Amino acid sequence: MSSNLIRGTFILTLGTFISKFLGLFYVIPFYSIIGGKEAAALYSYGYVPYTIFISIATAGVPLAVSKYISKYNALEEYAVGRKLFKSGLVLMSLTGMAAFIVMYLFAPFFAQLSIPDSEQVYTVEQVTSVIRAVSFALIIVPFMSLMRGFFQGHQSMVPSAVSTVVEQIARIVFLLAGAYIVIHLMGGSVVTAISVATFAAFIGAVFGLLVLFWYFFKQKKDLDELLEKDKGQADVSLTGMYSEIVVYAIPFIFVGIAIPLYQVVDQITFSRAMSAIGLAKEADAAFGILNFSTQKLVIIPVSLATAFAMTLVPLVTSSFVKGDLNVVKRQLDQTFEVLLFLTIPAAIGITLLSGPFYTVFYGFDPLGTDVLRVYAPVAILLALFSVTAAILQGINEQRFTVLSLLTGILFKLAFNIPLIKLFETQGAVYATAIGFSLSIVMNLLVIRHFAGYSLRPLAKNIGLIAIFNGAMSVVVMALSIVLRLVLDEQSRIQSLFMIMICAAAGAVVYFALSSKAGLLDTLFGSRLDGIKRKLR
């Protein structure tokens, strides 16, 4: 099971990282095309409501379906999963169409929530057109999500990974080409260009779905052979099936919209709080930095946690259903250690080099640098929340996921406006950190109570990870101070050189210390030996 966890995580992590990196690097030309922070805010005003709707429309399908199918596959009741798949395709088509209609019709209402002050750069009508453009993707994405869940339930991670990458490539190509044609060839407005850019979500979904169809027909023979091995002892009705799916799915919905819910809180309260302290004219630009620019950079380390969560749920579910609690604990040990080993240095690196990072992607901006510096460490919290929530799904205690998330959101709501008034844009980041920290603590307490799992046996390795990150930080900080004497942080090229030199030095120190202490062998074991042999 440990091998399956690492292999499945690697495949999904690779696909997710490629997708996230493409989603990160396209902002460089996109930012140049659309012309800056205010336009980025307009893009975010449309995309955040879409993210909420897509999570509700898919009803947590990929993870819920993968958990359901994994459970019955472990019992060798393969026909149950196939029955769910066939009926689910119809259901997802209906929910997708319903979500599209609602979002399209209520776009003016969502726009009004985002634009409370007439002094802001964009009008309610302009935001409405952007929201309606992105809503078309809702027609396809739920259908595509169910297919991904079907493959993941059979522990076949390649189709999901490949379709995710293809979807992202198609979206970005259409987004950049469309925005460029509208502004530079047709002489159109930024609002029209942003509407085309958000409509690109529909184009990407079409290509992602075509990839999944191809994999399904390619693997259909093997999938049909599983049906021949079906025990046929489980007679689950559609009513019973969807009752169980709903129990699984509701927590998945909340996990899927966790980050977007926090963004919605910002979208509703940020401009109001900034207006209250006399900064209404700066609100759109600052919101673009908070919810678009820096969020794109921070989400990179979190993508690892997303891949872990998608792989972890079906594996932990399978072990839990079989009663292999020792296997479950080993899987959780491995997950937490590898997650922290990779996520912490990534977040710290972005924090220490926040100025060069922001300059490379968006151009030099003091506010962007300051927000990124405080936002980057929150990536560790976002990753831990995703994984702890996935563990609760795996041990069938998903109801507590809803409770912990809602508690975190409540604290975000309570602290957001006061902290924004005190610290301006950074205050919204502090409120997010408070909310997610509380949710993580609640999740860990529930895991300890119901699974008898504790992080104490991992104290030694977590301590080593902390020490090695401290050593890495000293090297990176010292190098960056020296390099700033000869390199201009306001230059994109020179900032890129600074990142490359500091990141390489930090990585060498971190992995050398980890290897010497035996931490790499502990975490990656025989797979690391195989990599070493290939390198030799």
Detailed description of the structure:
It is a multi-pass membrane protein. The chain crosses the membrane at residues 12-35, 47-69, 89-110, 130-151, 172-191, 197-217, 245-265, 297-317, 338-362, 374-395, 402-423, 429-450, 462-487, 493-513. InterPro entries: PG_synth_SpoVB, Poly_Biosynth_Transport, Polysacc_synth. Keywords: Cell cycle, Cell division, Cell membrane, Membrane, Transmembrane, Transmembrane helix. With 536 residues, the protein is mostly helical. 86% of the residues lie in helices and 0% in strands. It has 22 helices and no strands. Helix 5 packs antiparallel against helix 8 and helix 9 packs antiparallel against helix 10.
Our Rg estimate from Cα atoms comes to 23 Å
Structural class comes to mainly alpha
Strand content: under 5%
Number of domains: 2
Helix content range: over 70%
Biggest beta sheet attributes:
none
Mean pLDDT: 83
Distance between the termini: 28 Å
Number of helices in the DSSP assignment = 22
So what's the overall shape?
globular
Strand count: 0
Order of helices and strands: HHHHHHHHHHHHHHHHHHHHHH
Low-confidence parts: none
How are the SSEs ordered, and which strands pair?
Elements: H1 2-25, H2 27-34, H3 37-58, H4 61-74, H5 78-105, H6 107-114, H7 124-134, H8 141-153, H9 158-185, H10 190-228, H11 238-256, H12 258-276, H13 280-322, H14 325-352, H15 354-362, H16 366-375, H17 378-394, H18 399-423, H19 425-451, H20 459-484, H21 492-516, H22 519-535
Helix pairs in contact: 1-9, 1-13, 2-9, 3-5, 3-7, 3-10, 3-12, 3-13, 4-5, 4-8, 4-11, 4-13, 5-8, 6-7, 7-10, 8-10, 9-10, 11-17, 11-18, 12-13, 12-18, 13-14, 13-16, 13-17, 14-17, 14-20, 15-16, 15-21, 16-19, 17-19, 18-19, 20-21
Subcellular location: Cell membrane
Membrane topology: Multi-pass membrane protein
Protein name: Cell division protein
